[in-house]
Write a structure and sequence with these properties.
The structure holds 2 protein chains of 2 kinds. By secondary structure, chain A is an alpha/beta fold. Chain A contains 9 helices and 12 strands. The longest helix of chain A has 23 residues. The C terminus of chain A is likely disordered. Chain B is mostly helical. In chain B, the strands form 3 sheets. Chain B has a two-stranded antiparallel sheet with strand order 1-2. In chain B, strands 3-4 form a two-stranded antiparallel sheet. In chain B, strand 3 and strand 4 form a beta hairpin. The longest helix of chain B has 31 residues. The radius of gyration of chain B is 40 Å and the shape is elongated. The N and C termini of chain B lie far apart (107 Å). The relative contact order of chain B is 0.03. The model of chain B has no long low-confidence stretch (mean pLDDT 83). The chains are: A alpha/beta, B mainly alpha. Strand 6 of chain A pairs parallel with strand 2 of chain B.
Chain lengths: 338, 311
């Protein structure tokens, strides 16, 4: 499909090597595509999400006839060409107004996707509050027990986490935590965990599934008496009310291949990443402190003869010991002669 | 001394930063995520949606911030840097895991000997010029010997000893050796991973090229046992009797090829072909710049001579 490019100079070679697979991956680049017809709401939603996702976002300017649920080949081609692995396709039809499809790829092939319908959208511009700096990592908050139990919501949580916060980083500057994206689900009393027996009732389930609310707040850290500051939230940013529509779950084999982790190297094991390290704690100053446990010593069995410090005053005892030694020696010598 | 009110005030301070929930919050500091598993309270949801959402979010984020501030930190000019642990939630990868590359010959030797890899700086201090110069690349110090304007030559050196060429040969031979070793490493890595078919095709292609790289294009060489017959270009002979039209076309084609070709014209210019190799002579005299440059120089000198130099 895509012809393999042979690097002709050092710069293109470096660019090609940057696209290769790494053990610890970079953040997923997202492509924002518009379908044949997108309304005003969808345009606004995609613009705002791109602002939150910058700089790892590519926006296609032209409208493309793309139907991901029927044919995913165009998505795969774009993923390979642009070295991107997330897609946000906006399409508004009569049957499915204001539909947003979030899709993920693995190895340039479609992994899974979910269609969400935008019911209510309030853009960033309508909130006259200070916004967070673009490019900062957001904190995420998911509020509902369904995110752990219902498979569709697990998929949605995984997709949103990957979209906003997918990069693994070593350290973060604490004053730089500026905004929060909070995802919550409306209460639905009729819904329990999905019953696999009634496979046909998927249509009903889709309508019964509760709505998702996405809210974005800026964080203000107020000084409290302790080291941990008090958190105050102010509204900012896009407000989205979404309802779940169709979805495509991942092929289990591809999912297994995508979830493979690299083997823990020896240094990581020594650092204690493989298991929880005991006897370590962080004190108030933020330093790492360790505890050393020594066994109880039996003082009766202490070898005091080998401890020079316990020998006491040097002068008198030396003289007496010398005399005693001198006395001893001739006695010994006498014995030897005998 | 009554310490109870001091303790009470201390506890009160902590109250503002602690969060109490029925189910403990699932905090993933690696991804800066907190999941609140308490079921949604329907009444407060219906009464005031936004406020309820904001309150739950605030509680969740308070717990997350408390966890983040509990991590070991390093000071930095922008503020304390918290060292994040690896994340607990598993997200799928975008690309498959890279296959481990087998170590090269040098890497194996270095690992056995315990040699640490040291990256050299690109700039090196030049005592003569008292400045930092590139070790390689543009105006690099590695080309110093070639670019010198004067060379010391030993007394017993042969007449046509070119010190510039000698220095350049040393450098190019080193480059060629490095390239050869890199290809050998690549081949060894391929065999280790098992790319046998590719290598077999590569070797067959190289063998085919070498077989026709003789003076007679491989036609009269002895064939070894096991060598496959080479696919050569088949000569197509026309039939003995062709129509008049075809003969006319063929002759006209030959004529058109004979005249009007610039390359042919240039070749015909060189008159004394048997004694002197004109092309080589021009190259030698012009020092590689070519006949046009020579002509330009000649014209310039002539023009200057006519005018009589600077006025």
């Amino acid at each position: 499909m895509l012809r393999t490019v042979k690097p002709r100079n050092a710069r293109s070679k470096r660019a090609l090597e940057a696209r290769e697979a790494k053990e610890v991956e970079d953040v997923r680049t997202a492509i924002f595509v518009k379908g044949t017809h997108t309304g005003e709401i969808l345009n606004g939603v995609m613009k705002e999400l791109m602002a939150l996702k910058r700089p790892d976002a590519i926006s296609f300017s032209k409208k493309n006839t793309v139907h991901p649920f029927e044919d995913a080949s165009s998505l795969e081609f774009w993923a390979g060409k642009n070295d991107a692995s997330m897609f946000l396709v906006g399409q508004s039809t009569k049957k499915r107004p204001a539909g947003l499809i979030i899709a993920r790829t693995f190895d340039s092939r479609l992994l899974d996707m979910c269609e969400l319908g935008v019911d209510n959208f309030v853009s960033m511009a309508e909130f006259k509050t200070p916004k967070s700096t673009p490019g900062h990592k957001p904190m995420m908050h998911f509020a509902s027990e369904l995110f752990d139990t219902h498979p569709r919501f697990i998929q949605v949580k995984s997709l949103l986490m990957d979209f906003f916060n997918g990069e693994v980083i070593d350290s973060i500057c604490l004053p730089g935590l500026e905004h929060v994206i909070s995802v919550s689900i409306a209460p639905a009393p009729s819904l329990q965990t999905a019953n696999p027996i009634l496979g046909d009732s998927q249509e009903e389930d889709v309508k019964n599934l509760p709505k998702i609310h996405i809210r974005t707040y800026t964080v203000k850290l107020l000084p409290s008496g302790t080291r941990v500051p008090r958190v105050e939230l102010t509204e900012m940013g896009p407000f989205l009310d979404l309802s779940l529509r169709r979805h495509q779950a991942a092929d289990p084999e591809m999912w297994k291949a995508a979830m493979r982790r690299p083997k823990l190297k020896k240094q990581d094991l020594e650092k204690g990443l493989g298991k929880k390290k005991k006897n370590l704690e962080v004190d108030e100053m933020g330093d790492l402190r360790g505890r050393v446990h020594i066994a109880k010593q039996d003082l009766n069995k202490l070898q005091t003869r080998k401890m020079k410090g316990l020998k006491g005053m040097p002068v008198e005892q030396d003289g007496s010991s010398e005399e005693s030694e001198q006395e001893d020696d001739p006695r010994q010598k006498k014995r030897k002669r005998d | 001394m009554d310490v109870s009110n001091i303790l009470a005030s201390h506890a009160a301070k902590f109250q503002s930063v602690t969060v109490e929930k029925e189910t403990p919050l699932d905090v993933d500091t690696g991804f800066l995520t907190v999941t609140d598993l308490t079921p949604i309270d329907e009444d407060s949801y219906k009464s005031n949606l936004e406020e309820y959402l904001q309150v739950t979010a605030r509680d969740g984020i308070q717990a997350l911030v408390a966890a983040l501030y509990g991590l070991p930190t390093q000071p930095s000019p922008d503020g304390p840097l918290a060292q994040l642990p690896p994340p607990t939630t598993q997200l799928p990868r975008a690309k498959p895991l890279p296959k481990p590359k087998p170590p090269t010959k040098w890497e194996r030797f270095a690992a056995a000997k315990g040699i640490q890899k040291r990256v050299r700086e690109k700039k090196v201090w030049d005592e003569e010029r008292q400045e930092w110069v590139n070790r390689w690349g543009r105006d690099g110090k590695n080309k110093e010997k070639e670019e010198q304007w004067i060379h010391e030559v030993k007394a017993d050196a042969p007449v046509d000893h070119d010190p510039v060429k000698a220095a350049r040969d040393v450098r190019t031979s080193r480059v060629a050796k490095n390239e050869r070793q890199r290809l050998q490493n690549h081949a060894r890595a391929q065999t280790a991973t098992g790319g046998r078919d590719e290598r077999k095709k590569d070797i067959e292609r190289t063998l085919a090229t070498t077989r026709i790289s003789t003076a007679s294009m491989g036609r009269f060489d002895k064939k070894l046992d096991g060598e496959k017959k080479l696919r050569g270009v088949k000569r197509k002979f026309e039939a003995t009797e062709t129509s008049v039209e075809q003969e006319k076309q063929a002759s006209l084609a030959v004529l058109s090829k004979l005249d009007g070709d610039v390359k042919r014209v240039r070749k015909e210019k060189g008159a004394g072909d048997d004694v002197l190799n004109v092309r080589k002579a021009i190259r030698n005299v012009s020092k590689g710049r070519g006949g046009v440059a020579l002509a330009r120089e000649a014209n310039k000198k002539g023009a200057r001579g006519k005018r009589g130099g600077k006025r």
